[in-house]
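Q: Joint fold for the lines below.
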Amino acid sequence: MKIVIINYGAGNIQSIMFAIERLGFKAVLSNNWDEIKAADKVIFPGVGEASSAMKMLFESGLETLIPTLKQPVLGICLGMQLMCNKSEEGNTKGLGIFDVDVIKFTPKVKVPQMGWNQIYNLKSPLFEGINENEYMYLVHSFYAPNCPEAIATTDYEVEYASALQKDNFYGTQFHPEKSGDVGEQILANFLKL
Amino acid sequence: MLTKRIIPCLDIKNGRTVKGVNFVDLRDAGDPVELAKIYSDEGADELVFLDISATEERRKTLVDLVRKVASTINIPFTVGGGISSVEDVEILLQNGADKVSINSSAVKNPQLINDLAQKFGSQCVVVAIDAKQINGQWIVHLVGGKVPTKLNLFDWAKEVEERGAGEILFTSMDNDGTKNGFANEALATLSELVNIPIIASGGAGNIQHFVDAFQKGKADAALAASVFHFKEIEIKTLKTALKNNNIEVRI
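A: Joint structure:
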């Protein structure tokens, strides 16, 4: 199986590479169109600030490629947020794959949300064998509100979408590569899709 | 609900764990990776590695360690000690660290906080603050509490938040090593003052101290070293006790 992690200069990519290795696979890092198109699975990482990450995507031209991919694609954290319509962070437009706008938590709660929180309302093959209310590791200041494409929700200030799916596109706000054995199982599920 | 976090801290010198570790089941008590794996399996929510080596080789040794830890464990970890530039941070993050903790370098060059937050995001910038009370005032100290600064703890905390820190690791030098509990009053004031998570550090001696840090100190996470290393408190027992006190934890 060929697993490509999209390389556009954003994200803690090494942790994802290591997690995939622990599952017995190998991933390559690439920004090459042909290589990405030919992959069996594509992972779209992202940590940092949305508008500068989007800028890097535009500069590399990858913003036109990603929405056209046909194989399973998993956006993680900021990667998931960039797959939405737009983000309040830096007022940037997104890839428009998920029909939802990313907004910021208010000062009613500590921002960023940092730590382990539960995911529930699980509905996707991504969560095959995963129990409701398992804890996942999250670090984020912006979030996708609950919406029809939500396949998992989490409570922090509001009930929001902690995972999204549309066709072959998946996104998790949490970090499966940093969420213990359960997180690794979710990553393994993605690789089995 | 977002849980409170329990964070064991490992002191590292030249790539090895220092400060007596009392794990009979460890093949190599000085191997930080093996210790990290044990803590992760016992239910630690995160780990902190504090590098206290002072050799010229330190950077390379630390990067090697970060890679080994990141390839072995599947929970987040923070690396601190001697980090003073954007380049220092870049190489640690590239090799799998999730966050870095800066202390003296932030006091000497506060702009570093802004630079790191802008380049890597606030989520990976932990500002560690060591403070102790002098004439009733909480004063920020450097070099493990030896050198006082002119900074007031609360003013400095507010400033680091404004500059883009994602989290504050507050160590009370008055409590550190006493095993008499965390500095809950100062913690609660901090937690009300800033809107980023606060990690309590210094003073853990028993389970009740952790309960108090969360309930009275309103901390978001609690860090400790020796009580875990010497197995005076086991993480599983601690988390069960916290849960029994209606404190949300990941079990």
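Q: Anything notable?
A: Helices of chain A lie at 13-22, 33-38, 50-60, 62-65, 78-82, 180-192. Chain A touches chain B at residues 12, 14-15, 18-19, 21-22, 47-49, 107, 110-118, 135, 137, 139-141, 155-156, 175, 177-181, 183-184 (CB under 8 Å).
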